[in-house]
Amino acid sequence: MDGTLLGLGGKTLSEAVQDPNAYVSACPTRQALDRIADKWTVLVLGLLEGGPMRFNQLRREIEGISQKMLSQTLKSLERDGLVSRRAFATVPVTVEYSITPLGATLAQTLVPLRVWAETHITRMLEARAAYDRAGDDRMADERTADAA
Amino acid sequence: MDGTLLGLGGKTLSEAVQDPNAYVSACPTRQALDRIADKWTVLVLGLLEGGPMRFNQLRREIEGISQKMLSQTLKSLERDGLVSRRAFATVPVTVEYSITPLGATLAQTLVPLRVWAETHITRMLEARAAYDRAGDDRMADERTADAA
DNA sequence: CAGAATAGGTTTCTAATGGTGACTTGATGC
DNA sequence: GCATCAAGTCACCATTAGAAACCTATTCTG
């Protein structure tokens, strides 16, 4: 083993990390991007930014998230050092999730994303409706062409 | 039909859009978030921000994307009015994708995300390694407990 | 003239992921 | 003695992502 990884253009992992480029598939940055570009991550970190929260509290706030996805999301956020988990030996057991300093820096960059979604949604819905109307025409054209 | 949608707390769609909240599952903002919080979207918009590009040009730049995912991503970006597509009747046909003004505003908010991934990846990898080491111990403990 | 290449896709098949709902554990109130 | 709470897990099915082949039309290469 010479420490060289396939797909990094002959670079070692540490060299690749010194020249990070999300457009290179083997670059670890790609993993990071894949990890954080996720609906539930954005919503969970958005809530934890306001202070620690408990499991079912998060579940109630994030309408539509399943227990499975929440525990999965929290587990991988914890693994990546973005949130921390503390369990209290109460009855029933209480678990508190809070954001780490690292997670807080990510949460900062995620805010504009949520804001963009909330402010530009109407423009997107309009564009979508227009596209779908045009699509109906296209399909009608195709049916006419087929019949001919 | 009174224009009321289920899950919006008795609000009409237009009322929900006036009070957007990504934490409400039926809010269209959630769709927008789900749409834009995507690895390929981040990478494609990041490239188109620098000027129009052609299909295979994008494919070559974004290492690891399949033709299917690229055409799918571009199609839904076009549907949502974030990129525009122009085909030229050359031989073989040439197709040029460019970012729309709306897409440009989104691309702006996506830059910090890519930058975060590129600058914090080492911290994440460290945290992950530490977590996995601890996990090995946990599993060893469980095996010991099982044997007892 | 056969075969390859090029551009921009679509189709097909499989592997991984996401969501649903039932189940767990242990104490506590009814 | 039964239901409830918290914080999950488990088994199952539906959707999706990814890999690889194929398509159409034209031109280039041997």
Automatic annotation (TrEMBL), chains A, B:
UniProt keyword Transferase, yes or no: no
A GO molecular function held by the record: DNA binding
Pfam families on file: HxlR
CDD domains noted in UniProt: HTH_ARSR
Domain HTH hxlR-type: 27-125
Record key words, sorted: DNA-binding, Transcription, Transcription regulation
Matching InterPro entries: ArsR-like_HTH, HTH_HxlR, WH-like_DNA-bd_sf, WH_DNA-bd_sf
Protein name: DNA-binding HxlR family transcriptional regulator
Source organism per UniProt: Azospirillum picis
